[in-house]
Every structure is written in structure tokens, then in C-alpha cells.
Amino acid sequence: MIASRVGLLNARALMRRTLLIIGCAITLLPTATTAREPQTLAKTQMVAAANPMASDAGLAILRAGGSAIDAAIAVQLVLGVVEPQASGIGGGGFLVHYDARSFQVTAWDGRETAPAGARDTMFLGGDGKLLSFPQAVVSGLSVGVPGVMRMLEEAHRRHGKLPWHDLFTPAIRLAENGFPVPPRLANALATETALRNDPQARTIYFNDDGSPKKRGDTIRNPALAATMRLLAEHGADALHAGPLAAEFVAVVQREPRPGTMTLEDLAAYRPLERTPLCRPYRDWTICGIGPPSSGPLAVLQALALLRRSTGQTLFAHHVAEVSRLAFADRDRWVADPGFLPVPVDGLLDGAYLDKRARLLSDDRSIGKAKPGLPPGTASTDMPAVPEKPQGGTSHMAIVDRDGNAVSFTTTIEASFGARRSVGGFLLNNELTDFNLSPVDEGRPVANRAQPGKRPRSSMTPLIVLDRDGRFVLAIGSAGGTRIIGDVLQTLLHALDGPDTLQQAIATPRLLNRNGATEIESHADADHLAGELRARGHEVVIAPHQGGLHGIRARYDDVGRFLGYEGGADPRRDGVAIGD
User: What local confidence, expressed as pLDDT, does residue 382 receive?
Assistant: First the structure.
């Protein structure tokens, strides 16, 4: 078993330390409460997810004696019903788990894989030119072998308490009896043009006249209810072998632009338990998952650079500048480690970070950053190429009554994935997370498509522990490549500042992906933009979709546990609720 022991409780240290997350006088709430208000706490257990129906399902599982993993499975299943544009059983994800008894963090990789027939030229058309990005997405070519159900099944074997079958009940009930269309799904349907071309999706999400279902309309999905009954009875094998798998493959291979996936590809999929990526930050240890996810690595690198670079000038400038460097390294060095060595330790090496920090200026932007040469590498012969940002993703945070925690980011990639469905669920378009062109300026791209390869991801599920190994925070987000900046900023507000978790999550966003500095539209955006432009930044002000959800443990000034504080992104439909 691959795991990381992060420390044992130390009574003397508890007496000495005052955590930065302490607030003023706290009233613990004795009944289930919705955690969108800054001071809302729960005593024993909590769920934060992107839809109230999913949060309700997770809390019901916890109340029935379920573990955090049990609740995460129920939440995922319900999200696949009520937030189908973002995640579902046809997708994948990354999950980080904290065991309160052993102080162990485990990291699960349920990322989709390219089928055996995939080629690095798969996104070239018959004329030898790259397909347009929408053409690549809305196709069978984009569909990766799904991994989320096999990953959750393995995690359940390790950490589940309730029977697997019971975890499907809330989702089956909603799919069969129907649910009112939530605001975010209604907005996604209103602007969607390709989904109605899929015969099954058209019957579920559109009216007889072809118009999309609106907010408050009822959606029923009996096909998905039937699929979930199969999975409840037979486990993840029901999706990876047998009649449902054959239907899945047939839909992938359907014209136009068919993919190469086979039944053998589905049967061969295995989730991976990876070594957690854990590093100290001030008084905490931050743990996530390593490549092919680039998010935790980029966040840890940015945090380390900030500690080396922050001067007396505008803090937003420093956040944007360290993000440029982290993204430059990410785009060059991070890919599936099964196909390319990823210098994780080198990218977080102290001497290397010192050298990178010397590129930064207190008063002037460095502009487009170039990747560095971390220890253990010989050259930068591969180009640094970003993938296209997409946004069909969701995040949940869960803590059970035993103190076990889950931080889980789940996705089908773009909104509504490949716009193909089978068994009532949507297929992912995860393979467009590869760089569509296998070369850049004549040089091979690290994150190009190859058989069996897992695409690079920006998903950033994190769990933060204190110096004694106790749970402090579970956080993550939706948002494509914007996830990294959103999680970085929220960590800074939640750990280093006086903000409540809800305030940290609601704070207007600022991020940089090694290009323009992006500022979320808000009252002071123009003023901040002016200060950044004066330092040489190109600035874009625009609305921001968000998708952050989290749970933070609260302690008093002598280290006694007080309760859990939840946060849900006000930019989306979600809530955090607990007992």
C-alpha cells in the first residue's frame, strides 16, 4: 500500500500553537445546517458539493453510518444525474483521502486513458490539417476509457463501510422520479448546440419541439436509473464488460469522426493508487496527487516561489508572476509519468526554486515565462505547450464522523463531454486534454496522444494537515486550467489570512496562466487592472465560473477541535451542509 504518514499528535505542540484559522466565539449548530454563511459550523460531519441534491445525498449516507468514501460515491452518482454537464459515470477523476486513525493520505488516479488504437495524429483531418477544437471535442475521437467507477470501487473496498449497493439509492430515485432543472444545468442547455444531435440526450434534456428544458422543468432519466441498477448489482464491471460496454463502444465508433475504442480497452482499464504529493507550507502540510495531474505540483511550486519573492509592492502582481513560472514548467514538464519522466522533485527543489525566484521583479512583469531546467533533466528540447481550457468538471469535499476526509475532483471534461450518450449518461471528451498537435515547431510535445496514455490534467484536489498530522482543510475546484489559480488564491486567503473559508472561496479571482493576467469582474477590478498594467501586465477583466468547494476544521487556541466550517462557491449551485 502506497501511503504517506504525516505525523502523530503531540500534546505539547497543541498547547503551544495558535492556528491561523481560529475565529472569534463560535456557536456549534446542533442540526443540519447549510454552510454558505461565513460562520456556519457543523460538529461532526459535513459535505460540500456542487448541487444541493448531491450534498443532501452525501449527508444522508454519513447519517446512516457511512464513511467519507461512501458519501463521495453517493455524491458522484447524484451529480451525474443532476449536473450531467460536469461529471458522471462516463468520466474520470482524482481523489485524495485522509484516514484520521492512521494519519495516512492516499491518492487515487481514476483518469481516463487513450485506447490502444489512439495515435498522436488522431486529431488530424483527411487533409492532414488539425481538426478545429469543437470538431475534435464533438466526436468519438475525444472519448477516453472511463475510470471513475473503477476508482471509486477500489477506494470503497479500502475505506467503505456501507454496502456498495446502498450508495446508489438516492441517484436511482432522482433519475427515475425526476428532479427540477437546476440553474446551472438550465444555463448550459440554453447555450448548447451539439447535444440535441445525440438521439438519447435529445429525449432527456430537450422538449418535443427541440427546445431545451428550462430551470424548474422536470427531467427524468429512466435509462440512467437502469444503468445504475446494473452498477449497483454488478459493480464497475457492468460498465467495462458486457452489453453496456458493447453499447458504449458502438457509440464511440459512431460517425462522424469515430473513435477507436474497443471492448478490450474498456476491460483493461485499471485505476492507480499513486504516491501522494505532500510538501510543507508554513505550519501545514499540503497533500495532493502528482502527474498526470499538474495542479497540486503547480500550486506547491507557486506557494514556494511566493515565499521567496514577495516584496512590498502589490501582492496581486506577485501571485500572477509566480503563476507564470509554474505554468511555464507545467506546460513543458508534466505529462503521464508512465510515458515521460516528470521531474517532480526537481521542480520543487529548493535551489531550483531560488534560481526561478531570481527572475522575478517587485515592480515589473517578466512577461511570457520560459520553462526552467530542474535538477535531473538534461535539456528543454520539448516545447512548453498549453492545452485548451475546458470546464465540465465538479469538486466535492467530505468529512465523516470519524474525521476521515475526501477531496475529489470529477469530470467529463467539456460541458456535456463529447455530446454522445449511452445508458442515460454522457461520454467524456477527455482526450482533447492532450495537445491536439503532436509537434510544435518541429519538436514532439510531451502531452501528445499515445495508446494507453492518460492526458495531463489541471484538477487539484488537496488535503491540508497541521504539523501534528490532523486534518485542517479539503479544497478543490472545477474550471479547467483555471483550477490551479483558483485553488492557489483560496489557499492563500484561507491559510494565511483572516478570511473564513466561505469568504476565501467567494473572493474575486485573479490568475495568470503564463499569458494575460485574468481578473474576475468586480467593483475594484478596473483599479486593480490599472495597477497591474502599470507593472507591464496585459490584463483581461471577465466573469468567472468558479467551482470551488471545501471543508475546514476549526480549533481553539489550545488545539481543541470545535467543528467543521464549509464553503460552497456562490458562482455555482452548490452548498455545504453538515451535522
Answer: 80
Residue 49 lies in a domain: yes
* Contact between 200 and 421 (Cβ < 8 Å): yes
pTM assigned to the model: 0.93
Measure the CA–CA gap between 180 and 215, rounded to whole angstroms: 7
Q: Is the peptide bond before 183 cis (omega within 30 degrees of 0)?
A: no
Of all residues in the chain, what percent carry a pLDDT higher than 70?
92
Residue 517, domain CATH: 3.60.20.40
Residue 56 in any domain: the answer is yes
pLDDT of residue 381: 72
Domain residues for 144? Answer: 15-178+220-274+395-578
Burial class (CB in 10 A: 0-12, 13-18, 19+), 229: middle
Distance of CA 268 to the CA centre of its chain: 24
Instruction: Please tell me the distance from the alpha carbon of residue 229 to that of residue 505, in angstroms, as a whole number.
Output: 36
Active-site residue among 260, 393, 481, 490? 393
- Domain tally for the chain? 2
How many separate helices (H) and strands (E) can be counted in the chain? Answer: 19, 25
> Is 393 one of the catalytic residues?
yes
Residue at a domain's end among 357, 386, 405: 357
Specify the higher pLDDT residue, 162 or 363: 162
> Would strands 517-520 and 539-542 be described as parallel, antiparallel, or unpaired?
parallel
Average pLDDT, the chain: 92
Q: What CATH code is carried by the domain that includes residue 343?
A: 1.10.246.130
